[in-house]
Structures are given as structure tokens and as C-alpha cells.
Amino acid sequence: MSGLVVFGPDGQSIGKVRDVVAGLRRDRHPPRVLGIVVEVATHRRIFVPMLRVTGIESNAVLLSTGSVNMRRFHQRPNEVLVLGQLLDARVTLLPSGRSAVLVDAALEQQRNREWQLGKVAVQVRSGPLGRKGPIQVLAWDQVAGPATAQLTEQPQEVNELLSVLDEMRAVDVASALHDLPEKRRYEVAEALDDERLADVVEELPEEDQKDLVAHLDEDRVADLLEAMNPDDAADLLAELTEPDKERLLNLMAPEESEPVKRLLAYSADTAGGLMTSEPVVLAPDATVAEALARVRNVELPVALASMVFVCRPPSETPTGPYLGCVHIQRLLREPPSNLVAGAVDTDLASLPSGAKLAEITRYFAAYNLVCGPVLDDQEHLLGAVTVDDVLDHLLPENWREGGLPDAGTPDFEPDTDGEHA
């Protein structure tokens, strides 16, 4: 069900399924499915009761008419997230007593229209290397556990949950981590590789970022900062105390920490504080083919790929004298063998490093840009500001937590029946 599109009664897409909420029981009866967690367009996660679900198909979940609470979902103490917490939980097979890992669960609708987790898929892991046995599908009463205490206290594997998160964009993984219980959030963060975790951390709210930094080992945090974009790493370090900041900068490789230190020297609300120090920079004798090859890099953010900057050596920021920029539309119209120097736009205004947010916003609006150069007083390129960095500072502080207006949200009435907070 993870990632299935959720449609309202009028056929309008509401969002995507991100988890299923169930209530564990003290007896051996299967857990009752309480509802689904749906991620709407603003990345806010809301709770939709199972009574609103009229059908679960291979490619969609269908809802009936009725009120749905559009406030952010908050997990209650007696609830468990099937994807976020049940997956990878340790269970005991009955009557053999063998230990196994829960790798999936099946939702079944009963005659009274209630849903429950009637069956589970489990896999025995044996030996010191955790050799995997065949997957078995069993009824819920054929396994013992998991209990709520186990899910909130004992360590769990993360293999199955990571396989689900691996198919999601970094911003969606960040939203999922934000909503996971603290213990589970740490387990997932520790299991992600540096590059993937860096992409996710860049999308987390500031408080979640600082929380992860406080939990992870300092050497791992230094590796994480090295994998992040320099401007995002600088933003994160700026939120820490001076001793912590200096200690982490010293743990980073010098070639990785230097651009971050330069960015930290600027105020956060200026072009220098907003810019990235790693735009696409080419020498004037580079060919159009070389420029197109650079902007085709799949790891390059879309905004930075919109233009290349032409400078005399050195090409690392701060560069030699800045000559101008070439827009990607112009590159696509030029013969590949031509030099970029012949396509340079020398008329586009640049931003001084001290430009304030209001000035930067007017600049982007006036020139219809998604990326703009930042120069020092000697006309050397220091970096580039992208529109996403501008928006990040214009939006409310809690926008990553779903703190946006619900413009464009499907027309559901607020839920006032108290089914879920």
C-alpha cells in the first residue's frame, strides 16, 4: 500500500498512503486497523479512519464521503505504525519457539466492515550473519509478539523499512522520519548511508536536524556534513553552539570545511549566506558540449543546472574574473563544438554578497530566474543563489512540518467527531 494514490469520492487525488495505523491487543486477537496515514500536497501527514475507506485496489485507495481531519497526524500511545514500527520487529513462531522477523502484514476486512491485520509474513534469520530463510505467511495467532513495549524499547532491524523508504524522494523520507517515534527515527538514520542521509537531513526541520546531530556520533556527523551541500551544511552548523560548531569543522576534511567556513562568515539573510559555493563554473575556452555534459549531472540540483558561469581561472570559488553566464536554453541552441565564450550573457546583473533577502527576491522576480550569480567587490564569482534557498527563507519557519496554508487541499470538512487527534 505504501505510495498508493488516495482518491476522494469525486475522483480527485488527495495524496499518497505513507503508513497504516493499528491498535495492538493484549489478547491473541489480530490488531484492529484504525486508519491510514495520508501525505497531502504540502507534505503534511493526516489521519484517515478506515471507515472512510471504501476500496483498496492495486493502484489506488478509494474514500467515501464524510469529514476528514486535516490537522497533522499525531500518534497516540496505544497505536502502532505498521510500516514505521511493525516491519522488522522480532516475533516468536508458535509452537516451535523459533525467532523470526516480521517483513509484511496483510489487511483483511471483516463482515462488520472493520479491518484487521489477519496475516503476517515472517522470515527466520539464523546464524551469526543472519542468514535468511524462506518467507512464511502465518495467521496472527501463530506468532507471539510484538508488544507495544518491544516496539518502543527494544532495538529493531530496519531492512524492510529501508526498502520502502528507498523508493521515496528525500523530502518524503524526511517527512516519514519526522513522524516516526524517536527510537525508530534514530535506527533508520544510523542505517542510511552518508549520501542518502545527507539528502534527507537537508529536507528536515531545523529541530529534527539538531536532534539527529546530538544523537549521532561526532565522526558520523562530520561525514554527514561533508556529504551535504556546503550551504546546507553551513545552515545546520549555524544552529549549533560555537564549541560544537568548531569541533565538527575540525573533524571535517579541510577541503570540505573551507567552503562551509566561508559561507558561515555571511549573515543568513544575505546573498552570501543563502548561496551555494559549488555552481557550474567553466573557463571561456570550454566547449558547449562540455557545458551540457556538466549540467546533465543527475546529482546537480535543477536550479543550478539552469545556467553555467564563465570565469577566468581558477574555476573554484572564489574564482578568477567573472565574465558572465550562459543559460541552458542558449546552450541547447548552440553547436556542441562552439566555445561557451561566444554565448555568454554579459548583461545579466549580479548580486553582491551583502544583498538582503528583499533585494534578492526582487532580483529573481525582475529577471525571471531560478539561479543568480553572487560576486565580490573585485568581480570574482563567490557562488550562486537558487530560488529554492530564497523560498526556504520566505516561507514560515515550520513549513517543513506541514505549516503551510491548505490552498488547493481537497474539499473535506474538518472532522469534529473526535475520531482522531
From TrEMBL:
Pfam families tied to this protein: CBS, MgtE_N, SH3_actinomycetes
CDD domains from the UniProt entry: CBS_pair_Mg_transporter
GO cellular component: membrane
Molecular functions per Gene Ontology: magnesium ion transmembrane transporter activity
Domain spans labelled CBS: 344-401
Domain of life: Bacteria
Family matches, as InterPro entries: CBS_dom (IPR000644), CBS_dom_sf (IPR046342), Mg_transptr_MgtE_intracell_dom (IPR006668), MgtE_N_sf (IPR038076), MgtE_transporter (IPR006669), PRC_barrel-like_sf (IPR011033), SH3_actinomycetes (IPR058838)
Record-linked SUPFAM superfamilies: CBS-domain pair, MgtE N-terminal domain-like, PRC-barrel domain
SMART domains cross-referenced by the UniProt entry: MgtE_N (SM00924)
Span of the signal peptide: none
Keyword Lyase: no
Keywords tagged on the record: CBS domain
Record region (Disordered): 399-421
Composition-biased stretches (Acidic residues): 412-421
UniProt key word Ribonucleoprotein: no
Name this polypeptide is given: Mg/Co/Ni transporter MgtE (Contains CBS domain)
Taxonomic source organism: Actinopolyspora mzabensis
